[in-house]
Amino acid sequence: MKSPLISSGLQILQINVGYRCNMSCKHCHVDAGPHRTEMMGKDTVDLILAVLKDRDMKTLDVTGGAPELNPHFTYLVTEAKKAGRHVIVRSNLTVFLEKGLEHLPEFYREHDIEITASLPFYMDSDVDRVRGEGTFRKSIEAIRCLNNLGYGDGSGMRRLNLVYNPSGTFLAPAQKCLEEEYRRELGRHHNISFDHLFVFSNMPIGRFKNYLEKKGSLAKYLKMLEESFNPSNLDGLMCRHLISVGWDGMLSDCDFNQVLGLPLLNSYPQHIRDFDHELLAGREICVDDHCYGCTAGHGST
Questions:
Q1: 230 in a domain, yes or no?
Q2: Kind of pairing, strands 242-245 and 160-164?
Q3: Within-domain flag for 84
Q4: What is the helix (H) or strand (E) element at residue 139, kind and residue range?
Q5: How far apart are the first and last CA of the chain?
Q6: Is residue 47, in this structure, part of any structural domain at all?
Q7: Integer Cα distance of 51 and 280 in angstroms
Q8: CA 7 to CA 115: how far, in whole Å?
Q9: What is the number of alpha carbons within 13 Å of residue 155 lying toward its C-beta?
Q10: What is the pLDDT of residues 65-84, one digit of tens each?
């Protein structure tokens, strides 16, 4: 990635509404958990909604932490749908079982929300080792609930996507092959279905970086990512199609840069209140060594 990486237009406004989460997964790049207090306020939510209503971005992509724990979450989603925007929520699934949040699956169905849900593997031992004891069982229960509401049936009406992350210091396999494996194993053993599987390599930041440092493997992992650089992945990079908004309203090229405190390059607006669609749509993207995590091997697109 020696040449400048340039945005190819803004299709998605991705926002991180806070780092609080009901879980503390070992691979979490945000270092989210119940102890985190960073949370997007309503004033910033309203600025985001104003941008959505005034600009030609069709999709709002909501992430966290567990985004559902933000007190303004349902307001944000409801208003974005009223504005005619497609809404994606990145959920950990287990949040559906938290007290007071049992209504979420019905809320998602009512508003035709696309759900992208973390399920690092299709076997309970692998998932529980990374995400905590009992997580796999809760995730399967949540997916069954969503399936009963019409999610994941392949019709495209209510899309349910799952996300795979490697359980160690190796690259993710090809997405298509692993999706077929997930579909077969989850259908056979748990009678559940989903629409798509997204495959992401673990980024060398957050808790996974801490894990690599403790093992003395950080330099080796970074070298593997760099040596596995695949230029064919550049067109599909998420950062080229979206802008990321942090819980405090600060703008970044992606959620990873946001967590690392890497803002947009100085010539571009830095906060959602100064949003300039035309300028940001053709911006040069800020890159660093961790970016090889999205371009290595089969890519994370």
A1: yes
A2: unpaired
A3: yes
A4: helix 135-148
A5: 16
A6: yes
A7: 13
A8: 25
A9: 8
A10: 999 999 999 999 999 999 99
pTM of the model: 0.94
CA distances from 157 to 70, 115, 132, 137, 186 (A): 26, 12, 32, 26, 21
- Burial group, residue 236, by CB count within 10 angstroms (0-12, 13-18, 19+): middle
Instruction: Give the CATH number of the domain where residue 43 resides.
Output: 3.20.20.70
Is 233 part of a structural domain of the chain?
A: yes
Distance from C-alpha of 34 to C-alpha of 57, rounded to nearest angstrom: 32
The Cα 31–Cα 208 span in angstroms is 9
CA distance 23 to 32: 7
Please say whether the beta carbons of 14 and 243 come within 8 A: yes
Q: Which domain holds residue 241?
A: 12-295
For residue 47 the two structure tokens come to: 């600025």
Domain count, the chain: 1
SS3 track for 239-268: HHCEEEECCCCEEECCHHHHHHCCCCCCCC
Closest CA to 247 of 231, 261, 267, 264: 261
SS3 call for 198: strand
Phi, psi for 229 (deg, rounded to 5): -55, 130
pLDDT per residue over 128-140, tens digit each?
A: 988 889 999 999 9
* Per-residue DSSP letter, 206: H
- Residues 11/241, Cβ–Cβ less than 8 Å: yes
Contact status, residue 282 vs residue 218, Cβ threshold 8 Å: no
Q: Give the position of tokens 């007290």.
A: 99
pLDDT in tens, 141-173: 999 999 999 999 988 889 999 999 887 788 888
Separation CA 33–CA 195 (nearest Å): 28
